[in-house]
Amino acid sequence: MKGKLPTQTYHKIAKNQIDYDVLRNRLKLKHLEEISTLYNKHPHVKKYFDYKKLDLKNIREHSAKIIGAGAVFGALLLAPPDNSKALPTPYALIEKLDNSRESGLDKFLIDTFKDILPDKVRPLTQGEEKLLEQIFYNSVGIKVNANLEGEHLNTTYGLIGAEQHLVRYPGDKLQNHGTGPELASGMAPGRGAWGYFSTNAAQLSDDLVEKEKWYAVVQTLYLPDWNTRQPYIKNWYKYRKVMIVNTNNAKAVIATVADSGPAAWTGKHFGGSPEVMNYLGGLKYKKGPVLVFFVDDPENKIPLGPVEYNKTNEYLTKLN
Amino acid sequence: MMLYYDHLVVFTKVEKHLKKINVNDDEKSEIWKLIDEMVHHRALTTVLNKLPFEEHNEFLDRFHRAPHDIAIIEYVNSKVGSDITKDLQKDFEKLEKEILDLLSNG
């Protein structure tokens, strides 16, 4: 038998466990301190939230519901966000697309993003999302949706951050993830939100290798109905195919959702595997604005990895 | 993004520290939520400490109605006569340091 016996290593496991428990207890105490500070100094705030039946710990869910309702009914009932731009007509866009044959599709997309998207990332209106869906289908040839089968992310326009490789099976090592420069990103110590990709190395198919290579991280934990629609919603998001587009250079990749995050307090809204980030912006690219839409590909015809603009017709043929 | 102060909260050091810890998904979510809730309480404390008492209800109504509305900052600025984002940033930096101390100590 190679390596140390379990009796020689159990104390290390126990140490990690204690570390987590200690950490959680410390944070809980600090958390209580923050609550006390607020409500001792401003007791009327507690009364206000009680009256409104809102617990501050659920403020993200509350906000997501309001934003979601605003996106659906925005065009009819609510005023558009202050920083929204006047959207170009589809006719104007088609004309621009036709004229982009020489200058290139990437330039057309970069210019269009500048025309449509707000200067700072925020949840887009339904009108903005619908227009982008049309643009992607007509230019790139891939059918994407902000809302697919009734599911919608809290935002489709946000900041993406660099993630590490994920452990694919028990005992997986970083050096098993290829030889590219992306290995420098390292490997996360824990598993992704959906656990191991396979039970062992032998079961790891080429398809699963691709899924880890081109994985995306989305904030499922902040979805307004995440806790009430289990296990359906967790299964729906597992390996869900998304298209991620860097709005600064129009580079796009198809990825699968394989982890939940990042935490809201990181200032980011999505995450990308080392390969995803390298393609979107190069090895030094750690954070930037992106669009994330679901890929409507029930027959799994669109391959993971970089979206090649010269293959628009190929994508269209696959979908039709 | 989802809350009017989200863009001011960037706990890079806490994120780096937590990425090294091997926890399962439930444990990770619990830690993230505890920190997130601390931010909510700290943000409210910071704003309400600055805002005149007679404005508290109006502010809470705006926050309850549209927690994501960035215009809340302009509203608060107009009532306090200074830039509340500077106070929020300062207090969030302080909070990150306090959390880091908890993560680092023994």
Q: What does this protein structure show overall?
A:
The complex is a heterodimer of chains A (about 325) and B (about 110). Chain A has helices at about 5-40, 45-50, 60-75, 90-105, 105-115, 125-140, 205-215, 230-235, 275-280, 310-320; strands at about 145, 145-150, 150, 155-160, 215-220, 240-245, 250-260, 270, 285-295, 305. Chain A is of the alpha+beta class and about 325 residues long. Chain A folds into two domains: about 1-55; about 120-320, RlpA-like domain (Barwin-like endoglucanases), CATH 2.40.40.10. Chain A is globular. By secondary structure, chain B is mostly helical. Chain B has one domain. In chain B, about 70% of the residues lie in helices and about 0% in strands. In chain B, helix 2 runs antiparallel to helix 5 (about 85-105). The model of chain B has no long low-confidence stretch (mean pLDDT about 95). At the A-B interface, helix 1, helix 2 and helix 3 of A face helix 1, helix 2, helix 3 and helix 5 of B.
